[in-house]
Fold this protein.
Amino acid sequence: VTQREILDWYTSLGAIRTKTSDDISASVIVDIALGYKKDDKATSTEITQRSVEIKDFLRRYFSGKTAAELKNVDNEDKLKMEIRNGINDKVLSGSKIRDVSFDQKDVIEQN
């Protein structure tokens, strides 16, 4: 059994609100934690310095998805991987996050 790495988590992004890409868009409210290597001060600092850019990336990411994609629990690992890779590739320069966790992921469809 491989032991899962213990990470430090950045939890101060706050809730991000946006709309889905559906014709009749649903509201999305997400609160995301970013996991990084334990005691990695450089990554912690860069996440803090780039938190505005990270939130912008997340807002755009979720507004490009449909409600069905976001509500499908089987899709969650894929979403987390896309978010992790996107933040690493497009936002962070010297650092890498290792994992993404949803503290909240609400998709509210219009009835």
